[in-house]
Amino acid sequence: MIKLTKLNGAEIYINPDLIEKIECHPNTTILLTTGKSTIVKETPDEVTNRIIEVKKKIHSK
């Protein structure tokens, strides 16, 4: 799970395996394979880096 921040300041955790697409127009919108979406404060690069870090932790074990 990766921790992100919604525009209202609430923290959310998202399973990175469910992320289908990340868009930026102008806010970062995360589209999930479930059809749901959410807008977060983090940039697409920040989201991508968090996904990479989680995947590294999983695969290093």
Average pLDDT works out at 96
Hey, roughly how much beta strand do the residues contain?
35-45%
- The count of strands amounts to 5
Low-confidence stretches: none
Shape: globular
Summed up, the helix count is 1
Secondary-structure-derived class: alpha+beta
Strand order of the largest sheet: 3-4-5
Structural domain tally = 1
Major β-sheet profile = 3 strands, antiparallel
Question: Could you spell the SSE succession in H and E letters?
Answer: EEEEEH
State Rg: 11 Å
How far the N terminus sits from the C terminus, by CA atoms, comes to 16 Å
Which percent bin holds the helix content? 25-40%
Summary, kept brief:
The protein has 61 residues and is an alpha+beta fold. It is 26% helix and 38% strand.
What does this structure look like?
By secondary structure, this protein is an alpha+beta fold. It has one domain. 26% of the residues lie in helices and 38% in strands. The protein has one helix and five strands; from the N terminus they run E-E-E-E-E-H. A three-stranded antiparallel β-sheet has the order 3-4-5, with no helix packed on it. A two-stranded antiparallel ribbon has the order 1-2. A hairpin with a 5-residue loop joins strand 1 and strand 2. The longest helix is centred in the C-terminal third of the chain and has 16 residues. The protein is globular and about 35 Å long. The model has no long low-confidence stretch (mean pLDDT 96).
